[in-house]
Amino acid sequence: MAFVQGTLDEEIYKKIPEGLNEYYQENLEGKVLKLNKALDGLKQSGRVWYQMLENGLVEMDFRQSSFDSCAYIKVDQNKDIVIVTIYVDNLLIFSNSVKLKNWVKEQLKSTFKMKDLGTASYCLGIKIERDGKNGSVSLNLTQYVEGVLRRYNMHESHPVTTPLDTNKSITKSITNMEDLTRVPYQTAVGSLLYAAQATQPDIGYAVNLLCQFMRYLRGTAETTLNYSRNNGDAIIGYCDSNYGGDIADPRSTTGYVFTIGGGAVCGAANNSPQLQQAQQRQNIWPCLQQQKKPFGLTKL
Questions:
Q1: Burial class of 244 by CB neighbour count within 10 A (0 to 12, 13 to 18, 19+)
Q2: C-beta of residue 154 within 8 angstroms of C-beta of residue 214
Q3: Are residues 144 and 225 in the same domain?
Q4: Percent of the chain at pLDDT exceeding 90
Q5: What is the 3-state secondary structure (H, E, C) of the chain?
Q6: How many angstroms separate the CA atoms of 267 and 293, rounded?
Q7: pTM over 0.90
Q8: Which of 69, 110, 173, 261 has its CA 20 to 30 Å from the CA of residue 232?
Q9: d(CA 63, CA 40)
């Protein structure tokens, strides 16, 4: 529904699909269709739709966030704020003013064919729960995680309390290729990466170490990110690293997380790009690298 609202600039022709002759009750042999609107499957459809949506938001005096290109922000004369976030044709609208939020929805409806689904309870598999009395929001991926566990026959496994045993060393050598071929490894890792980036940053380090931890997800599928106004709006960051913790790779592993309102908003775990010769330097270097993150977060 979204892509067909975008108008194409290029001349694109398409073969006449089966059944169209009967629909028009005429012989269309030797003819083709000229596309005036974008369709699913065209390589430019996503760009055409996004440009159309962006132009509409800019006309409403929204500005694009310098931290996240999929977030658009508007502040009116009363200092009320409204934020529109975009994922393809799914929009979430956040505002401290009901009047301003309703105005934005009416403007969008007058420009685009869209459906108002009301208060968001799910978005991209993430369950959204609100507590207006306490001023808090909780996010979890319980259904998504349970689906991943079932897909790889881990839903009946015994849960573990930590994502990875730090006493075990994971190396690049493969001792039993037959066991590995039973699992679509790249697909499994991709499934877990989404969980780590969305609502379970606690598995970020383990994801970085080849994802040998599905039994941990079995016991933490209901893990929730909680944000509360009672925790304030200060940006708090945590950063740490180990010094040559992997015998197969002398580079150290660095991890960081930043929180706002008591909940994580961004974080990562990865190998250090540089090989440090001293433990003190390795502990300080990642913190110096990540101190630039808060400047981007303040733009939200």
A1: middle
A2: yes
A3: yes
A4: 21
A5: CCHHHCEEEEEEEECCCCCHHHHHCCCCCCCCEEEEECCCCCCCHHHHHHHHHHHHHHHCCCEECCCCCCEEEEECCCCCEEEEEEECCEEEEEECCHHHHHHHHHHHHHHCCCCCCCCCCEECCEEEEEECCCCEEEEECHHHHHHHHHHCCCCCCCCCCCCCCCCCCCCCCCCCHHHHCCCCHHHHHHHHHHHHHHCCHHHHHHHHCCCCCHHHHHHHCCCEEEEEHHHCCCCEEEEEECCCCECCECCCEEEEEEEECCEEEEEEEEECCCCCCCHHHHHHHHHHHHCCHHHHHCCC
A6: 10
A7: no
A8: 69
A9: 28
Residue 149: inside a domain: yes
User: How many Å is the Cα radius of gyration of the chain?
Assistant: 24
- Token pair of 108, please? 């969008």
| pLDDT tens-digit map of 197-227 | 788 888 776 666 654 444 555 566 677 888 8
Give residue 218's identity as a one-letter amino acid code.
R
Q: 54: which 2 tokens?
A: 């962006």
Answer for the pair 230, 263: CB distance below 8 angstroms, yes or no: no
Tell me: do 220 and 148 sit in the same domain: yes
156 and 261 together in one domain = yes
CA distance 294 to 67: 10
Largest CA distance in the chain: 80
Q: Compute how many other C-beta atoms are within 10 angstroms of the C-beta atom of residue 285.
A: 18
CA distance 250 to 244: 5
Is 217 inside any structural domain?
yes
Amino acid at 142: T
Q: Is residue 284 part of a domain?
A: no
pLDDT in tens, 28-73: 778 888 888 888 888 888 899 999 999 999 999 999 998 888 999 9
Compute the half-sphere exposure of residue 234: CA atoms within 13 Å on the CB side of its CA.
5
